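Researcher: Let's continue the batch. This sequence belongs to Cell envelope biogenesis protein OmpA, and it's 276 residues. Same format as the previous ones, please.
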Amino acid sequence: MRSVKSLLAAGAATLISSMAFAADMPIAAPPPMYAPPAPPADFGGWYLRGDIGMTNQSAKRIESALPAGYSKTTEGLGFDSSPLFGLGVGYRFNNWFRADVIGQYRGKANLHGSDNVVGPGFVGVNNYSGSKSEWLVMANAYVDLGTWWCVTPFIGAGVGGSYNKLSGFRDDGVSYSPLLNNSVAYFADNGKWNLAWAAHAGLAYKVNPGFTVELAYSYMNLGDAAPGNYRLFDNSASGPTSIKVRDITSHDVKLGVRWDLNSPPAYVPPPLVTKG
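Model: Same format as before. Here are the structure tokens for Cell envelope biogenesis protein OmpA:
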């Protein structure tokens, strides 16, 4: 009997000792929790841009003074295509809105057109020739419509000023001063500033976080243009011109690039907190 009691006491002591040792052991840390990536945050930053392209220009009409009782209709008025080159600086406010200011040179485009003049017992034609170029300064705003497979469609609008210059302008046809007759008139080169506005649409492809390529279309309204003083070929008359080329517009196709000066911040996961 005494040996049985001794065995029971020894077993109880061993069990109590094991329980105390287990209580002194540290609790194992739980596995770290999965932290899903954060959605991309809006970011802003400056960028530089450059553009090259081609213009497709037209004008609504050519205005000129006519004697009483005479009328005219304009035929074939327009311009040849010309290259354009632009530089600018802009700021992206967030992932969908940006704005920039650009300077653009639009190369010389040959002008062609004629006026059919009809009067009492008279029918004649004025044939116009020359070239036109522009310096353009414009502020633009754009809305990016979302991105699919790194391609972002966008729309935009702009307003600014266009310096329209007519060079080598010539009028072969009818002279009204001092008498109505056939003649040739030469005009001095002349330029003038006009209010200009534009509407834009295009696609942007992000090559990497700091470099984007654009293919864009722009409708441009450039205002008017006028040559300088005229002189008849035989110096029989000269003076200020009455000719104006009205409502010059253009359909431009451009290839552009943008360099972001501030790349978007990289995503940094939050630190994991564990129980110790």
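Researcher: Any comment?
Model: Residues 35 and 269 are 7 Å apart (CA to CA).
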